[in-house]
Amino acid sequence: MLRRVAGIGPYFELVTEPSDGPGWRVFPGDAEVLREAARDYAGRLGTDEVRVAASLLFQGLAARVWSPVVAAAALGVVPDLSGLRWRWAPGEPIALGVPDPRGWRAEDVAEAAEIVLPMVVDGLLRPLREAMLGFVRLADGLVWGNAASALAGSLNVGPDDPGRVAIVRELLAREPLAGTGAFGPRGYVRNNCCLYYRVPGGGMCGDCGLAR
Description:
This protein is mainly alpha-helical. The chain contains six helices and seven strands, in the order αβααββββαααββ. It has helices at residues 2-6, 31-45, 50-73, 109-132, 140-153, 162-172; strands spanning 24-26, 77-79, 85-87, 95-97, 103-105, 181-184, 187-190. A three-stranded antiparallel β-sheet has the order 1-3-4, with no helix packed on it. Strands 2-5 form a two-stranded antiparallel ribbon. α2 packs across α3 (50-73) and α3 runs antiparallel to α4 (109-132). The longest helix has 24 residues, at 50-73. The radius of gyration is 16 Å and the shape is globular.
């Protein structure tokens, strides 16, 4: 199942082996590695605002977590991310992996959401935010807006899939994602900002609430 969803795109890949060797660390790991990654992002984006880079790093990591989980859940299996690991080096893309692939069967959208939401939000994204707070301030609205944007944005990759859409909408209707944005005539629009507009030459994201 993981190999199948990985074919959708790079953000949908969960490495299964070897994801416990050199360079791999438990997600999210310590704040110093995240700080180094944020500084690397800042340099590549051409900004000296670590908060901007950290915000985009959080959103990118959230996208890499949501994408394979939702895609697999739409096919009836929710991968277990309790042992999630990640790998990063300056100038290199981030990779996520599960050294012991396993999961749960989900019979419908509600059951999938009941498994996915606490596993991702409480098990991964809250600890990620807490680790980042060791070196940068990220407001609640920004954090959960980024998480929701990453989740909604996963639908922009790959073929149209009513199953993925249904799970994403169900998750977005639940706390802490509820109210962070909404689907409209031009797609998903968030109610807060990821700070990308502060990147030199960055412009606005496709779901930017400021564009209204």
